[in-house]
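Protein modeling request. Please complete all fields; requests missing the sequence field cannot be processed.
Requester role: graduate student
Desired output: 3D structure, token encoding
Chains: 1
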Amino acid sequence: MIRRAANSLLVNSVKQHQIASSSSLRHMTTFSENDNVLVNENGTAGVITLNRPKALNAINTDMVKKIYAAMRDFEKRDDKKLVILKGVGEKAFCAGGDVRSVVEGSVGDGKEFFRNEYKNNELIGNYKKPYVAVIDGITMGGGVGLSVHGKYRVATERTLFAMPETAIGLFPDVGGGYFLPRMEGNIGFYLGITGFRLKGRDVKKAGVATHFVESSALEELEKELGKCNNSDEIDKTLAKFEGLFKDTSEFVLQPHLKQIEKAFGGDTIEAILKKLHSDGSEWAMKQLKTISKMSPTSLKITLRQLQLGKTMTLRECLQMEYRLAVHCCIDSDFKEGVRALLIDKDQQPKWKPNRIEDVTQDHVNKFFAPLPDNDELVFETSAKL
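Delivered output (385 residues):
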């Protein structure tokens, strides 16, 4: 049975099924409703669809491998000018990765999942053809990794974005170390540390999405994208559909941008907390309450991850994050966080250590250390410069 993904929204389990091998992907035109990844064609577009609506399209190792195979296949085909990735259903694009099965499985199972997931993230970030992720609905964790590194990310009024990993004893992975610190005004540090959720148009205003289109227009948008032959035509098509919907709303974080930039620019978690205490506003107190629920170790790992990632390439970030993820599988708050939030659901994780001040630098350093037997993440192809 497929397990729940990495947030409290993921509840139902469904059976896994296999689709055809990558060698036959180009010949597929019909699919069983039980296939967890659908691969189809729409004119000049290759279309990949996550098909686990009961689990909010949460991804597991099997699905990640299928997505990777389909992308490689479409990348080689001259008749396909772009790739579209979307999810089935109105609730979610992809609500995350299958972390419950990771913590309940062996360390080897965890390594296999993260290795394949991160290779997919790197492929998306360096894809040779235009890549369009339609992030309609919940887009968290692993779903962010399937979208944010691509050239085009189309949000809708139903989009709900978050990187909630510090709440389960993990860290904002899938290349979070690359894209979060590059967001303006320390917004990425704020999102990665607190797990704050962005909705609808705010996903674009924050810089996560590149376009906003109402969900009612997505079917027609996909048809038009299937007629495009290059990036210029894709740009014009997306601009046309985005122009159908006027926006006069204020960015949800606008009233707090100066506070975010000041507080979340701290060099340490302790410094961030001190600045929030000094701020003293109702908003700052709310952030302190939120942060107090997170794994202290995860908070310190996350801050260092983002600080280091700011000057790394995507590939370097993913290699760093693979080390972090494997060490989390070996010994960390990860299992306890998943237990408390997703398995027993008592919402009472027992973090070790349970206070920020007790998380030593040596403890943080071990997560960034080389892996046993030098089992590091190795990519199959060279990244674009």
